[in-house]
């Protein structure tokens, strides 16, 4: 499971990776994610993302993708 965001809120712009889960465990997260965000993905429950310390650049569209092909399909629209 990957959590992604577009920094400007425009779908035609590239996605910025935030965090990657394997099952319920965070496997990889960006420095920005580690500094200001938290997320969890409990088994059999929806994943959640929380912004702990908001900044103006956090105004964006956030997406959760279950696979790389989902990311590619969304970003091609």
From TrEMBL:
Q: What is the lineage of its organism?
A: Eukaryota, Metazoa, Chordata, Craniata, Vertebrata
Matches recorded under PANTHER family: IMMUNOGLOBULIN V-SET DOMAIN-CONTAINING PROTEIN, T-CELL RECEPTOR BETA CHAIN
- Is Signal one of the keywords? yes
Give the originating organism.
Bos mutus
Per the UniProt record, one Pfam family is V-set
Q: What would be one Gene Ontology cellular-component term for the protein?
A: plasma membrane
Q: Name one GO biological process term.
A: cell surface receptor signaling pathway
Identify this protein by name: Immunoglobulin V-set domain-containing protein
**Which residue range or ranges hold the Immunoglobulin V-set domain?**
14-67
User: What's in the keyword line of the UniProt record?
Assistant: Immunity, Signal
